[in-house]
Amino acid sequence: xxxxxxxxxxxxxxxxxxxxxxxxxxxxxxxxxxxxxxxxxxxxxxxxxxxxxxxxxxxxxxxxxxxxxxxxxxxxxxxxxxxxxxxxxxxxxxxxxxxxxxxxxxxxxxxxxxxxxxxxxxxxxxxxxxxxxxxxxxxxxxxxxxxxxxxxxxxxxxxxxxxxxxxxxxxxxxxxxxxxxxxxxxxxxxxxxxxxxxxxxxxxxxxxxxxxxxxxxxxxxxxxxxxxxxxxxxxxxxxxxxxxxxxxxxxxxxxxxxxxxxxxxxxxx
Length: 269
Fold this sequence. Notes:
By secondary structure, this protein is of the alpha+beta class. The chain has helices spanning 4-18, 33-39, 112-121, 133-140, 147-152, 162-171, 185-205, 217-220; strands at 24-26, 44-50, 53-58, 62-67, 73-78, 88-93, 97-102, 106-110, 251-255, 258-262.
């Protein structure tokens, strides 16, 4: 599932390609056909992202709410657009560009109040200017749940996925099985600010890189990471490999139906 930096990048890409201009909207698959007919010829006049939720605003018609889920894909291209396949839920196009949405968990035309209700149930997003990390801290500081699980709970903090979860805990030497209430406020503040910086860089580079300059392949004289997620990381998908810092073995385990990765030596209990 895409993490929050990808959704914010998609918001910026939609605005750059289609913002302020009328677009043609269609639903070759048919599941969004009625809403697409209402949007056809309307101006895309706003975009928004919160966590893993993308919103495309169309004048008085409201917002297209998109959640990619596990299988959703977004593909941009230059005009002229090729004939769409019947798997395309929504196509937006203008004389210069097109974008196809396939396989999302959610693609729905919603009103302003419905959009606000989605924001209200989500936690603060490190990529949303002005979001308050204290909202998350109030929940974390009272919780017996592990910090690893809390970081993945979108009602606590929005946009963090499995990669950022594993990597930020490693970077701060925090055992993923520590209860939220056992963190100090100083530790939480450091985690939040680190997520802000890492995820902003993720938006800029369109990939996740979490290693510090002294631990890059060039600095350490090691081969670069080869993985379809791209980017240089400390522990994510590195189970049974040596830690870049201590040389110990990276561990993995199942936690809340997701694979957890950590270094027991660098993240002691």
